[in-house]
Amino acid sequence: MNGNIKSEIRALRENSGIAYVASVNEEGYPQVKAMMVLEHESVKTHYFSTNTSSKRVGQFLKNPKASVYYCETAGGFKGALFTGTIEVCTDHDTRALLWNEKSWTYYPKGVDDEDYSVFKFTAETVNYYQGLKNTTLSIEDVL
Q: Dihedral angle at the C-alpha atoms of 74, 67, 88, 27, nearest 10 degrees?
């Protein structure tokens, strides 16, 4: 395993401010949504905040299969497509992981606002693209 690829995947994840999160709708079609990246702790587990009332919450409760894509164009195009599952979390501790001062704008009742949920994405594989080459790895190979 090329250690350089592993470090490039980790750097792409750590330096991204936006991720593209894909779900599957009721008709079986993929749907992609840009979401702010509020944490960079792990290459295996990614967290995103959202409204409990959003379409995505319903979609992930019915079908947890998901993908998360990070990309950058500076210095040549690079992309990392993580594939795995999303869990919808409404417990206090998971919500508190992403809570910050800006959150009050969206969730005026605070961290326990019933319209505040967190997506916990757990990656199984990652496909890394750079320089006209694709490399698919088990997430365990990137840790």
A: 130
Residue 9 is encoded by which pair of tokens?
């995947």
In angstroms, the CA 141 to CA 43 distance is: 11
* Tokens standing for residue 106: 């969206």
The answer to whether 68 and 20 have CB atoms below 8 angstroms apart is: yes
66: left (phi over 0), alpha (psi -120 to 50) or beta: beta
Spatial contact of 122 and 68, defined as CB atoms under 8 Å apart:
no
**Could you tell me if 5 and 135 are in contact, meaning their C-beta atoms sit under 8 angstroms apart?**
yes
In total, the chain counts a number of residues equal to 143
pLDDT tens-place string over residues 92-142: 999 999 999 999 999 999 999 999 999 999 999 999 999 889 999 999 999
- CB-CB contact of 119 with 89 (8 Å): yes
Alpha carbon distance 18, 34 (integer Å): 6
Q: Distance between alpha carbon 96 and the CA centroid of its chain, in Å?
A: 17
Residues linked to residue 12 through DSSP beta bridges, in sequence order: none
DSSP symbol at 6: H
Contact 141, 1 (CB under 8 A): yes
